[in-house]
Amino acid sequence: MTEFQRTALARSISTKHGNMPELLFVYDSLIDGHSNQRVSVREKHIALEKSPVFTVVNDVVAKAGEGSYYKNVRQEWASLCCTPAKAKYHESLAFTRSLGDFYIHSFGLTHQPDVIQVDVAALMRQEAWTTVLVVVGSDGIWDAWDYAAFNQVLWKAMADHKSALPLVADDVMQQNKQVSAQVFGPAVDNMTLVVCSLTMNGSSSS
Protein backbone atom coordinates (compact mmCIF):
# COMPACT_ATOMS: atom_id res chain seq x y z
CA MET A 1 0.00 0.00 0.00
CA THR A 2 1.36 3.43 -0.93
CA GLU A 3 1.43 6.41 1.43
CA PHE A 4 -1.17 8.04 -0.81
CA GLN A 5 -3.55 5.12 -0.29
CA ARG A 6 -2.81 4.82 3.43
CA THR A 7 -3.61 8.46 4.12
CA ALA A 8 -6.79 8.15 2.02
CA LEU A 9 -7.94 5.38 4.35
CA ALA A 10 -7.29 7.61 7.35
CA ARG A 11 -9.17 10.65 6.03
CA SER A 12 -10.50 10.94 2.49
CA ILE A 13 -12.75 12.95 0.22
CA SER A 14 -14.88 11.40 -2.50
CA THR A 15 -14.35 12.55 -6.08
CA LYS A 16 -15.65 11.37 -9.44
CA HIS A 17 -12.35 9.55 -9.91
CA GLY A 18 -12.42 7.77 -6.54
CA ASN A 19 -11.39 8.49 -2.98
CA MET A 20 -8.59 11.01 -2.54
CA PRO A 21 -6.73 11.69 0.70
CA GLU A 22 -7.74 14.97 2.29
CA LEU A 23 -4.06 15.46 3.03
CA LEU A 24 -2.39 17.11 0.06
CA PHE A 25 0.65 15.66 -1.69
CA VAL A 26 2.02 18.61 -3.63
CA TYR A 27 5.19 19.75 -5.33
CA ASP A 28 6.96 22.43 -3.34
CA SER A 29 7.56 25.75 -5.05
CA LEU A 30 9.03 29.15 -4.32
CA ILE A 31 6.00 31.42 -4.04
CA ASP A 32 6.44 35.18 -3.87
CA GLY A 33 4.18 37.47 -1.91
CA HIS A 34 2.89 40.87 -2.94
CA SER A 35 4.72 44.11 -2.12
CA ASN A 36 7.72 42.16 -0.83
CA GLN A 37 5.60 40.56 1.91
CA ARG A 38 5.99 36.87 2.65
CA VAL A 39 2.94 34.76 1.92
CA SER A 40 1.22 33.02 4.80
CA VAL A 41 1.24 29.23 5.12
CA ARG A 42 -2.45 29.21 4.16
CA GLU A 43 -1.76 31.27 1.02
CA LYS A 44 1.09 28.96 0.10
CA HIS A 45 -1.12 25.90 0.51
CA ILE A 46 -3.80 27.44 -1.72
CA ALA A 47 -1.18 28.02 -4.41
CA LEU A 48 0.39 24.57 -4.03
CA GLU A 49 -2.97 22.81 -4.39
CA LYS A 50 -2.61 23.58 -8.10
CA SER A 51 0.49 21.35 -8.34
CA PRO A 52 -0.45 17.89 -6.98
CA VAL A 53 2.06 15.05 -7.09
CA PHE A 54 -0.58 12.39 -7.76
CA THR A 55 -3.89 12.08 -9.52
CA VAL A 56 -6.49 9.32 -9.41
CA VAL A 57 -8.31 8.09 -12.50
CA ASN A 58 -10.69 5.14 -12.12
CA ASP A 59 -9.14 4.35 -8.72
CA VAL A 60 -5.67 4.14 -10.27
CA VAL A 61 -3.02 6.40 -8.70
CA ALA A 62 -0.73 8.05 -11.24
CA LYS A 63 1.95 10.72 -11.21
CA ALA A 64 0.39 14.08 -12.03
CA GLY A 65 3.31 16.06 -13.41
CA GLU A 66 6.67 17.53 -12.55
CA GLY A 67 7.84 19.74 -9.73
CA SER A 68 9.45 23.15 -9.51
CA TYR A 69 12.94 22.30 -8.27
CA TYR A 70 15.05 19.28 -7.36
CA LYS A 71 15.70 18.52 -3.71
CA ASN A 72 18.85 16.47 -4.35
CA VAL A 73 21.42 15.51 -6.96
CA ARG A 74 19.34 12.47 -7.97
CA GLN A 75 16.84 14.94 -9.44
CA GLU A 76 13.96 14.02 -7.17
CA TRP A 77 11.33 16.76 -7.08
CA ALA A 78 10.85 18.66 -3.83
CA SER A 79 7.41 17.82 -2.46
CA LEU A 80 5.31 18.32 0.64
CA CYS A 81 2.47 16.78 2.58
CA CYS A 82 0.26 19.63 3.72
CA THR A 83 -3.14 20.27 5.19
CA PRO A 84 -5.76 21.62 2.75
CA ALA A 85 -6.38 25.35 2.53
CA LYS A 86 -9.74 24.94 4.30
CA ALA A 87 -8.12 23.30 7.35
CA LYS A 88 -8.32 25.06 10.71
CA TYR A 89 -4.53 24.98 11.04
CA HIS A 90 -2.02 24.98 8.23
CA GLU A 91 0.94 22.64 8.48
CA SER A 92 3.25 21.00 5.99
CA LEU A 93 6.04 18.44 6.16
CA ALA A 94 8.47 17.04 3.61
CA PHE A 95 7.96 13.48 4.88
CA THR A 96 5.18 11.14 6.00
CA ARG A 97 6.65 10.16 9.38
CA SER A 98 7.02 12.55 12.30
CA LEU A 99 6.80 12.88 16.07
CA GLY A 100 4.53 15.34 17.85
CA ASP A 101 2.75 16.83 14.81
CA PHE A 102 -0.64 15.86 16.18
CA TYR A 103 -2.87 17.99 13.96
CA ILE A 104 -1.40 16.89 10.65
CA HIS A 105 -1.37 13.32 12.01
CA SER A 106 -5.17 13.52 12.03
CA PHE A 107 -4.95 13.71 8.22
CA GLY A 108 -3.08 10.40 8.00
CA LEU A 109 0.57 11.07 8.79
CA THR A 110 1.99 8.78 11.43
CA HIS A 111 4.83 8.31 13.89
CA GLN A 112 5.03 4.60 13.05
CA PRO A 113 8.00 3.74 10.80
CA ASP A 114 8.05 1.31 7.92
CA VAL A 115 10.10 -1.71 8.97
CA ILE A 116 11.58 -4.37 6.71
CA GLN A 117 13.70 -7.37 7.65
CA VAL A 118 16.62 -8.63 5.61
CA ASP A 119 18.47 -11.87 6.31
CA VAL A 120 21.93 -10.40 5.79
CA ALA A 121 23.76 -13.68 6.45
CA ALA A 122 21.69 -15.47 3.81
CA LEU A 123 22.25 -12.60 1.36
CA MET A 124 26.00 -12.70 1.95
CA ARG A 125 26.10 -16.44 1.34
CA GLN A 126 24.00 -16.08 -1.80
CA GLU A 127 26.21 -13.31 -3.24
CA ALA A 128 29.49 -14.72 -1.86
CA TRP A 129 30.16 -11.47 0.00
CA THR A 130 32.63 -11.41 2.88
CA THR A 131 31.69 -7.92 4.11
CA VAL A 132 28.57 -5.79 3.98
CA LEU A 133 28.51 -2.10 4.88
CA VAL A 134 25.35 -0.63 6.37
CA VAL A 135 25.25 3.17 6.27
CA VAL A 136 22.81 5.39 8.15
CA GLY A 137 22.88 9.01 7.08
CA SER A 138 20.84 12.20 7.34
CA ASP A 139 19.59 14.34 4.45
CA GLY A 140 22.86 16.25 4.50
CA ILE A 141 24.50 13.05 3.26
CA TRP A 142 21.96 11.56 0.87
CA ASP A 143 20.96 14.81 -0.85
CA ALA A 144 24.50 15.24 -2.16
CA TRP A 145 25.13 11.85 -3.75
CA ASP A 146 24.06 9.53 -6.46
CA TYR A 147 23.91 6.16 -4.68
CA ALA A 148 26.39 4.48 -7.02
CA ALA A 149 28.89 7.31 -6.57
CA PHE A 150 28.53 7.19 -2.78
CA ASN A 151 29.09 3.43 -2.86
CA GLN A 152 32.37 3.92 -4.73
CA VAL A 153 33.54 6.63 -2.32
CA LEU A 154 32.68 4.48 0.68
CA TRP A 155 34.50 1.36 -0.50
CA LYS A 156 37.53 3.39 -1.60
CA ALA A 157 37.70 4.86 1.91
CA MET A 158 37.52 1.32 3.30
CA ALA A 159 40.49 0.32 1.15
CA ASP A 160 42.47 3.50 1.85
CA HIS A 161 42.05 3.19 5.61
CA LYS A 162 42.26 -0.61 5.82
CA SER A 163 38.69 -0.86 7.13
CA ALA A 164 39.36 1.37 10.16
CA LEU A 165 35.80 2.63 10.47
CA PRO A 166 36.45 5.87 12.41
CA LEU A 167 38.85 6.92 9.66
CA VAL A 168 36.44 5.75 6.96
CA ALA A 169 33.57 7.76 8.43
CA ASP A 170 35.75 10.86 8.83
CA ASP A 171 37.04 10.56 5.25
CA VAL A 172 33.52 10.25 3.81
CA MET A 173 32.28 13.16 5.93
CA GLN A 174 35.08 15.40 4.69
CA GLN A 175 34.30 14.52 1.09
CA ASN A 176 30.61 15.08 1.75
CA LYS A 177 31.29 18.58 3.07
CA GLN A 178 33.12 19.46 -0.13
CA VAL A 179 30.50 17.96 -2.44
CA SER A 180 27.58 19.49 -0.51
CA ALA A 181 29.16 22.94 -0.54
CA GLN A 182 29.60 22.73 -4.31
CA VAL A 183 26.00 21.64 -4.86
CA PHE A 184 24.05 23.56 -2.21
CA GLY A 185 26.36 26.36 -1.10
CA PRO A 186 25.33 27.82 2.28
CA ALA A 187 21.98 25.99 2.14
CA VAL A 188 23.54 22.59 2.89
CA ASP A 189 21.59 20.42 5.32
CA ASN A 190 22.96 19.00 8.57
CA MET A 191 25.17 15.92 8.18
CA THR A 192 25.16 12.75 10.27
CA LEU A 193 26.81 9.48 9.24
CA VAL A 194 27.00 6.03 10.83
CA VAL A 195 28.97 3.25 9.11
CA CYS A 196 28.58 -0.38 10.18
CA SER A 197 30.72 -3.21 8.83
CA LEU A 198 29.13 -6.65 8.95
CA THR A 199 31.11 -9.83 8.40
CA MET A 200 30.24 -13.48 8.80
CA ASN A 201 32.27 -13.52 12.03
CA GLY A 202 31.02 -10.31 13.66
CA SER A 203 30.39 -6.61 13.17
CA SER A 204 31.72 -3.18 14.06
CA SER A 205 30.53 0.40 13.63
CA SER A 206 31.62 4.03 13.75
TrEMBL record:
<dbReference type="Pfam" id="PF00481">
    <property type="entry name" value="PP2C"/>
</dbReference>
<protein>
    <recommendedName>
        <fullName>PPM-type phosphatase domain-containing protein</fullName>
    </recommendedName>
</protein>
<dbReference type="InterPro" id="IPR036457">
    <property type="entry name" value="PPM-type-like_dom_sf"/>
</dbReference>
<dbReference type="InterPro" id="IPR001932">
    <property type="entry name" value="PPM-type_phosphatase-like_dom"/>
</dbReference>
<feature type="domain" description="PPM-type phosphatase">
    <location>
        <begin position="1"/>
        <end position="198"/>
    </location>
</feature>
